[in-house]
From TrEMBL:
Family per record: Belongs to the glycosyltransferase 2 family.
Alphabetized UniProt keyword annotations: Glycosyltransferase, Transferase
PANTHER family tied to this protein: GALACTOFURANOSYLTRANSFERASE GLFT2, RHAMNOSYLTRANSFERASE WBBL
Species name: Shewanella ulleungensis
Coiled coil: none
Protein name: Glycosyltransferase 2-like domain-containing protein
Amino acid sequence: MIGAILVVYNPDLALTERLLTRLYGQTEEVIIIDNSPKPHSFKKVIEHYTYLHFPENIGIAAAHNAGLIHLLKLGCEYAILLDQDSLIPTDMVFNLSSLLKASKTMKQDIVAIGPRIHCSFSDKNVRSLVQREVFDYEQLVGVTQIIASGMMIDLSAIDEVGLKDESLFIDGVDHEWCWRARSMGLSIARAKQVEMLHRLGDSRSKFIGVTYKVGAPIRLYYQFRNILLLSRRPYVPTYWKVRCLFFMPIRLFLNSVMQTNKRKRLVYMVRGIWDGLLGRSGAYNKHWHH
């Protein structure tokens, strides 16, 4: 049995309904976790689903965990995680679950698999410049991490790997779980022939010919803080630590000088760096007032 976990936050209803229409019938269970202040109904496009509403916004990690625990109680074998900015093909769940099942017979310890990501902003397939491929086997390529949306998890691995790290709240949650699994000798894979459309970031900007992602100011707090928190952990890849720490001053400059809301962005980044250095985690409003 396969269950889907869709996390939404102030969703674009047209986009979310389009995703649910594609998802309908692909899984036996659908859990919608809503971190928005006001509740939403999706009955227009999907009849049977479990709806969990957290108006105080518990973050992506806690939302995933609520869904994963629910699916484990229902006896599901696999869970597919999705967010509102993705659009999946109508056979994605079948294809990913088939590859996970096949990997079991080949005695490969693959605990999570994701599709190739096609970014709707750049209209290009997302490729990491530094992430090395761990293994290459027919339909699968082993990788160090995959993003949460489109990630299918073998739920039997939760006992060993554990749930998502709620202390991170949002940014880096998906990667941290993958790295933790890999530090235990387990594998993460990407399907070569399965592609998903996904929007990365809120918008794009260019500086001296280089395009970079622009997110909401509050996200900068979590991004900067979580880089500093994760950089202390031994199982986090060295290349990731070096790259993120190297680009931190550049991102600080771009987001405080080249964007609108300069002061607001700078405040969030400085607070993120401060809390990261102090080792503070959890939700922003635990430590600061908006």
